[in-house]
Amino acid sequence: MYYSQDVIDSVLQGVDIVDVISPYVHLQKRGSNHVGLCPFHNEKTPSFSVSQNKQMFYCFGCGAGGNAATFLMKYENISFGEALRQLADKAGVTLPVRNYTAEQKKRQEKRERLLQINKETATYYYRLLRSRRGEKGMAYLKGRALSEEIMKRFGLGFAHGAASDLVKYLKGRGYSDEDILESGVAVFDEKRGLHDRFWNRVMFPIQDMRGRVIGFGGRVMGEGMPKYLNSPETPVFDKSRNLYGLHMARKTRQPYFILCEGYMDVIALHQAGFTEAVASLGTAFTEGQAVLIRRYVGEVILAYDSDGAGTRAALRNAQILRKAGIRGRVLSMKPYKDPDEFIRNLGADAFRERIREAENSFLFEIRMLEASYAMDDPAQRTEFHREIARRLCQFEEEVERENYLQALAARYFIREEALRKQVASYGRAGAGQQDLVSPDQPPARQERKPRKGNAASLRNQRLLMTWLSEDTSLFGQIRDYISPDDFEEGVCRTAAGRFWEAMDAGQAPASAVPSVIASFETEEDQQEAAALFGTRLQGLSGEQERAKAFHDIVMAVKRDSIDRLQARDVSDPMSLQLLLYEKKKQKKLEGAVFKPRRES
Question: What average pLDDT does the segment 443-471 reach?
Answer without folding.
Answer: 67
